[in-house]
Amino acid sequence: MIPRPTLADIVRRNEAELVLETASAPLRRNLFTPLARALSGAEHGLYGHQDWIARQIHPQSCDDDTLLDVFVPIYLPAGRKPPSAASGVIKLSGAAGYPIAAGELLGRGDDAQFALVDGVTLPAAGQITAKVIATAPGQAGNTEPGSKLRLVNTVPGINGEAEVLAPGLSGGADIEGIEEVRARVIEARRNGGQVGRTTDWEIWAKEVAGVTRAWAAPKLLGNGSISVYFVRDGDADIFPDAAEQAAVLAHLEQTGTPMGEIYALAPINKPINFTIRLTPDTPAIRQAVVEALAAVLASEAAPVKRADGRTSLPVSGATIPRSHLTEAISGAPGEWDHLLVAPAADVVCGIGELATLGAITWL
């Protein structure tokens, strides 16, 4: 890139050129200096505009509005992932024969509200399950199983408290972050046309709200099949439940190229426990090491072996070299020396297993 001159450089150049053009030395009171500064200010602004234009050419450096208005329509046909509302099943109780209408609101302790999707009538047993959906989209609507919801308004014959059933209220996701959009645009741009390659299936999976990482495994479950593992890093539990897997499967069946069988799968969690001796050993350096290890696992861990950003064939499990872990620890700010006691060898995962950061024991 051509270096951009500073305003002071432009002023000095213009002052010198004015002297040369007039063939006379500048007097103490003359127009050279104010004229040079005025012209230099305008010229500096033009350089700035050219610099801005150059940044807009590439999605890596462009402004947010350029990314959304220019690059997203070209490379992400489905657009920026909108927020989605959490949903799931609750258990209601009360007197037999009493109805509760669709749309009835239930509240959580933090004032989040959920609406009954369909009206139900209590059977003779006095208990019934019903589906609810968050009234506001976003990750905040996700609710753990066993949580209690209360009716906002009294409903005759219906107990005011309801229980969230397993696997909880899930599927809630915030609007896609701008840097996540940027990363998907860059990935799609590098990948070229989407014709059904393994990387295409990963791109399609990440079009679903909340999905942040995906790995495609062709022929894993038979010839002509495609299996796509995925996680949701924004959720408290990154491993998707059955409803979230069904949502991704539905999107893949609608978007992807025709295949014999399509599977949307949750990886198997494989926590990796560490035993480390640090020098020096301080809380700040420990935290830096934790962040460094989490980063290398997020970057290299995968449920299938990868090479050059693609799934290696035939499909096999992934391995994280132990040297990469020691390198990450060495790169933590403040670390001078360390001893990695465990793991004592490379981290070897089976097909479908995803290495995650487990417990750390400090010596």
Key structural traits:
4 domains; Phage_Baseplate_Assmbl_Protein; 363 residues; Baseplate_J_M; GMP Synthetase, Chain A, domain 3; six-stranded antiparallel β-barrel; Elongation Factor Tu (Ef-tu), domain 3; Barrel_Baseplate_J-like; single chain; alpha+beta
Describe this structure in words.
It is a single chain. By secondary structure, the chain is of the alpha+beta class. The protein has four domains: 7-75, no CATH class; 87-164, Elongation Factor Tu (Ef-tu), domain 3 (Beta Barrel), CATH 2.40.30; 178-265, 2-Layer Sandwich (GMP Synthetase, Chain A, domain 3), CATH 3.30.300; 269-362, no CATH class. The chain has helices at 7-22, 32-56, 64-75, 178-191, 198-205, 242-255, 283-300, 322-330, and strands at 87-93, 99-100, 105-107, 113-116, 120-121, 127-134, 148-151, 161-164, 213-218, 225-231, 261-265, 268-279, 306-307, 310-311, 319-320, 337-342, 347-348, 353-362. The longest helix has 25 residues, at 32-56. The radius of gyration is 29 Å and the shape is extended. InterPro entries: Barrel_Baseplate_J-like, Baseplate_J-like_C, Baseplate_J_M, Phage_Baseplate_Assmbl_Protein. Residues 272-362 form the Baseplate J-like C-terminal domain.
Overview in brief:
The protein has helices at residues 7-22, 32-56, 64-75, 178-191, 198-205, 242-255, 283-300, 322-330, and strands spanning 87-93, 99-100, 105-107, 113-116, 120-121, 127-134, 148-151, 161-164, 213-218, 225-231, 261-265, 268-279, 306-307, 310-311, 319-320, 337-342, 347-348, 353-362. The chain has 363 residues and is an alpha+beta fold.
